[in-house]
Design brief:
This protein is α+β, with helices and mostly antiparallel strands and 429 residues long. The protein contains 18 helices and 9 strands. The protein is globular, with a radius of gyration of 23 Å.
Length: 429
């Protein structure tokens, strides 16, 4: 394990001198450890300076910036459809959720209402993305603690979600599927799509979850490593503005699908009185790593329930809504056979063309697998955003990491980090 381990003299250590070292460290009875970024559990992108008393963490100072990509600045040079390719790279564990979150905010700016068919499809995909993320999280959290088999149980099944994304968009990892007011293309074959989703939800996912629970839930070693570790109280979770499974494991009953409903989570989503999908919000009270693991397991079951309410009754009709008929690239056959379609294609594709956004600013968010995921957009009337700011859940949740770790053993570091499910690209955006 790469590390820097020396007697804690605040002025001689082989790391940058920071104020807290001079204030807190007493030479001779503290050690300084560089944990990451070259450590498997930190994904080569996270660095935490640990002040240790023996093997007990006295203080932790996270350092971010090892995966800085300038996502927010790139938005100023890409139009409202192009930026979806950048947005999906922020949470690379469930990229489709990023696509939906971005265009959810854009559509609020443009005052665009989705068609019922698109609403249902996006709801299904957002919940598949939630399952996709949670399978990785619970599997990797087990892997970091030595349960390699648990990781395989989760990771293997994610492949079938990638297959579904590939079927819809032609791309497995980053589908870049959504567009303003719709998606890049309709479902190629609805029956095949339904069979793929049913096979995953009815056959593959239940077996994988049963295997993980059999392996971990009553595993003495796993439970001892996560129970009572990294505790966050309900009051602390609220004070830190934590969201997602991290907050719900501490008793915070907040979920934007219920508190600020969108897509099929809202009543009358089809404009004809359709009821919102029914599901429960898993909530625990102990606020430790074990609770965060259990909350994610139950959320996968609830996501499966949501999808099953929709998959067999996807509305017919258009997949895209465009008030002026100018927001979407026409079908290639129409481009070849119609002068109007050719002109529309030209207007959307050429760099000096495009459609302009209304002047204004909006903020809108969805419930991503890790919590509230929102975009603040400032538009000056051009075809590109003037400013974009992201509210990524990992950036907010990671604030509490140092507090969660203090007082625990060095070996507990990976357990706490795995339960938070930090996505580094959201930190360094």
């Amino acid at each position: 394990m790469p590390y820097t381990l020396q007697p804690a003299d605040a002025y001689d250590i082989d790391i940058e001198t920071v104020e807290y070292l001079d204030r807190k460290v007493t030479a001779g009875d503290r050690w300084i450890l560089n944990f990451g970024p070259q450590h498997p559990a930190t994904h080569t992108t996270l660095r935490v300076i640990l002040e240790l008393d023996g093997e007990r963490v006295v203080q932790a100072t996270p350092h971010i910036g090892y995966l800085h990509s300038g996502f927010e600045k790139l938005a100023e040079h890409q139009d409202y459809n192009q930026f979806v390719c950048t947005a999906s790279r922020m949470d690379y564990i469930a990229p489709i959720v990023n696509d939906i979150a971005w265009h959810h905010s854009v559509e609020k700016l443009f005052d665009v209402t989705l068609t019922p068919r698109c609403t249902v499809l996006r709801t299904i995909l957002s919940e598949l993305g939630r399952i996709q993320s949670h399978l990785m999280c619970v599997g990797a959290a087990a892997l970091d603690l030595g349960a390699f088999t648990g990781f395989l149980y989760g990771f293997n099944e994610r492949e079938f979600i990638y297959d579904i994304m590939d079927f819809l968009s032609g791309q497995r990892f980053h589908p870049d599927y959504t567009r303003v007011g719709g998606v890049m293309r309709d479902i190629p074959d609805e029956e095949i799509f339904k069979k793929m989703v049913h096979n995953f939800l009815d056959e593959r996912l239940p077996k994988a979850m049963k295997d993980m629970e059999t392996l971990l839930n009553r595993n003495r070693i796993f439970v001892d490593r996560v129970q009572g570790i990294g505790v966050v109280s309900e009051q602390e979770a609220t004070a830190w503005s934590l969201t997602g499974p991290l907050a719900r494991a501490s008793g915070v009953r907040r979920d934007l699908r219920k508190d600020s409903p969108y897509l099929c989570f809202a009543d009358d989503w089809d404009g004809q009185g359709a009821e919102a999908v029914k599901f429960d919000i898993p909530v625990a009270t102990d606020g430790d790593c074990l609770c965060r693991y259990l909350v994610r397991l139950e959320e996968m079951r609830q996501s499966s329930l949501i999808i099953k309410q929709l998959i067999d009754d996807i509305p017919s009709g258009p997949i895209n809504s465009s008030p002026d008929g100018k927001m979407h690239i026409p079908e290639k056959g129409d481009v070849y056979g119609s002068i109007e379609a050719t002109i529309q294609h030209f207007e959307l594709i050429m760099t000096n063309r495009g459609w302009n956004a209304p002047v204004g600013e909006v903020y809108s968010a969805i419930e991503s697998p890790n919590g509230e995921y929102g975009f603040f957009i400032v538009a000056n009337g051009g075809k590109d955003p003037w400013r974009v700011s992201v509210r990524p859940p990992s950036f907010i949740n990671f604030q509490a990491f140092a507090k969660m770790l203090e007082g625990h053993q060095l070996a507990d570091f990976v357990a706490v980090l795995g339960s938070v499910n930090v996505i580094a690209a959201e930190l360094d955006r």
